[in-house]
């Protein structure tokens, strides 16, 4: 008998958990739907599809609270590879995108899925590798270095996930008319930048990365910058909102505010200062049009 | 080895400092997992009883589905739920994607088959003679089920424990349908994945200790409940 009581008591306790969990979500949804006409005062959810680099570097943790405070929205950042972020935009599953794959972005604008595309900032890609640099590419130009790595059959770790970084890497191979897969030491991780760097460090391989993620993780990696500063290696971020005329469920008001927010002077200043203290150099550079 | 000690230190540090974010993540993990297990239990046990004690056309086929479901990869569950909840999907108008609710749904999907399946096999293993005896003594249907439930209590709680284990360990689906949004859908498993990808192994390790302690406490309580009144 006693057992039964305990059992039912614990069930009741769990039921309360359930109620709180469920009622929270139903409240949110019902209020969301009711308030749509007079959205101005209500806090609404804004889905931001972005790349892992903005989250892993910590930049979003600084910018999003700033934006939420002034705009009365609740930003839901979904940090995925650029490929997936763009796809979410194309399907209207996100309201606003912050990504870095200019060519693919242009396709989205051309197809009418994205509008109001604005340049925000850049950081740069760097080629990093083991400190002893077995292929001897330190200080070379990017193209030269890639050619050398290919010829030597050096261990090269690729994102392989259709992200902006991966696309950049493929562009470089393409410009050299090389098929990276012909190098048997070429490996694809299919994961985010952070994990790919870890794999590269473990395998003592070369890898192309954005500077922000590298700096943020430098401590736990045994990799050094070997090639940097090339014009070809600029990693340009754009922000854009999803076209409400094509996808009727997007929260275009908030998306537009977010685009404006990203390019306003104050935000740009924050972007410029971000990371200076911790890493001694900025991670992102303002670059508006 | 250093890293392990570092992680332990970090875990203790995090607990002592009472970081509200850690507390929030842990609390959400607990709430989401328990809700999912509870719902799965409420649906799963009656369903298991019916499947175990009755026979109807297509029963074997249902059983096959349940047995496949016991091994349903969480990412598959996650993908299905994502498509269901997409704005363009059938339930899109409720904007449930990237909410704790979505995680609960995915977790129910992976734990329900386990609870149904294990409950069902427990009831099937029961001695036929006892069933006859209960009937012979003139028990009503409800009374019969209550008697039987008492009889297989241990197995039923084992089903719940297995379901809970599945749910608390789940990460693929939670990442996909929850989105690992800070302060909203970030749970212990998804934050571990994130911290690893950031290279913060000490934090990840600390979180893993936290997760395991949580799993230990709950499983401890459930096991105690299961093993109570045990004579042997």
For the sheet with most strands of chain A, the description reads: 10 strands, mixed
Q: Structural class of the secondary structure composition of chain A?
A: alpha/beta
CATH superfamily of the domain at 27-185 in chain B: MetI-like
Mean pLDDT of chain A: 85
The percentage of residues in β strands of chain B lies in: under 5%
Would you report the number of β strands of chain B? 0
For the largest interface in this structure, which chains are involved and how many residues does each contribute? A-B, 46 and 38 residues
> Please, how many domains of chain A?
2
Question: Radius of gyration of chain B in whole Å, from Cα?
Answer: 21 Å
Element-by-element helix/strand order of chain B: HHHHHHHHHHH
Share of residues in strands of chain A: 15-25%
> SSE order of chain A in H/E notation?
HEHHEHEHEHEHEHEHEEHHHE
The overall pLDDT of chain B, averaged over residues, is 89
Estimated radius of gyration of chain A: 23 Å
User: What is the annotated CATH architecture of the largest domain in chain A?
Assistant: 3-Layer(aba) Sandwich
* Tally of helical runs of chain A: 12
- CATH superfamily (homologous) name of the largest domain in chain A: Periplasmic binding protein-like II
Q: Give the overall silhouette of chain A.
A: globular
Query: How does CATH name the architecture of the domain at 27-185 in chain B?
Result: Orthogonal Bundle
Quickly name the level 1 CATH class of the largest domain in chain A: Alpha Beta
Pfam family, one (chain A): PBP_like_2
Keywords (chain A): Signal
Protein name (chain A): Tungsten ABC transporter substrate-binding protein
InterPro entries (chain A): ABC-Tungstate_binding (IPR052738), PBP_domain (IPR024370)
């Amino acid at each position: 008998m006693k057992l039964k009581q305990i059992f039912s008591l614990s069930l009741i306790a769990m039921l309360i958990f359930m109620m709180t969990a469920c009622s929270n979500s139903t409240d949110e949804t019902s209020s969301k739907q009711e308030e749509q006409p007079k959205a101005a005062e209500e806090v609404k959810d804004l889905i931001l599809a972005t790349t892992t680099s903005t989250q892993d570097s910590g930049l979003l943790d600084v910018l999003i609270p700033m934006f939420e405070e002034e705009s009365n929205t609740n930003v839901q950042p979904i940090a995925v590879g650029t490929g997936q972020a763009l796809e979410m935009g194309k399907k209207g599953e996100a309201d606003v995108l912050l990504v870095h794959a200019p060519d693919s972005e242009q396709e989205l604008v051309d197809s009418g899925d994205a509008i109001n595309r604005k340049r925000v900032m850049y950081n740069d890609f760097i080629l990093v590798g083991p400190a002893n640099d077995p292929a001897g590419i330190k200080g070379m130009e990017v193209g030269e270095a890639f050619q050398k790595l290919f010829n030597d059959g050096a261990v090269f770790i690729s994102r392989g996930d259709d992200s902006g970084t991966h696309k950049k890497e493929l562009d470089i191979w393409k410009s050299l008319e090389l098929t990276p897969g012909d190098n048997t030491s070429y490996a694809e991780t299919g994961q985010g930048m952070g994990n790919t760097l870890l794999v590269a460090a473990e395998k003592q391989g070369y890898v192309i990365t954005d500077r922000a993620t590298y700096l943020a993780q430098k401590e736990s990696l045994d990799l050094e910058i070997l090639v940097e500063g090339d014009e070809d290696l600029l990693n340009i971020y754009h922000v854009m909102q999803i076209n409400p005329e094509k996808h009727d469920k997007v929260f275009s008001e908030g998306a537009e505010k977010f685009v404006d927010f990203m390019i306003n002077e104050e935000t740009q200043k924050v972007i410029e200062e971000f990371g200076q203290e911790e890493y001694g150099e900025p991670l992102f550079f303002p670059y508006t049009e | 080895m250093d890293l392990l000690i570092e992680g332990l230190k970090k875990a203790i540090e995090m607990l002592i400092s009472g970081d509200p974010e850690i507390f929030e993540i842990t609390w959400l993990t607990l709430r989401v997992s328990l809700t999912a297990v509870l719902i799965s239990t409420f649906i799963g046990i009656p369903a298991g009883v019916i499947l175990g004690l009755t026979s109807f056309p297509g029963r074997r086929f249902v059983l096959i589905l349940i047995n496949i479901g016991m091994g349903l990869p969480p990412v598959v569950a996650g993908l299905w739920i994502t498509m269901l909840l997409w704005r363009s999907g059938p339930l899109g108008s409720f904007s449930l994607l990237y909410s704790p609710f979505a995680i609960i749904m995915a977790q129910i999907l992976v734990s329900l088959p386990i609870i149904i399946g294990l409950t069902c096999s427990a009831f099937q293993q029961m001695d036929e003679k006892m069933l006859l005896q209960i009937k012979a003594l003139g028990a009503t249907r409800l009374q019969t089920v209550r008697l039987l439930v008492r009889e297989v209590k241990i197995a039923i709680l084992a089903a719940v424990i297995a379901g809970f284990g599945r749910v608390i360990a789940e990460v693929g689906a939670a990442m996909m349908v929850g989105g690992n949004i800070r302060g909203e859908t970030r749970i212990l498993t998804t934050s571990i994945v994130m911290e690893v990808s950031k290279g913060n192994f000490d934090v990840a390790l600390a979180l893993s200790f936290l997760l395991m302690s949580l799993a230990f406490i709950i499983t401890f309580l459930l096991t105690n409940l299961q093993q109570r009144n045990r004579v042997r």
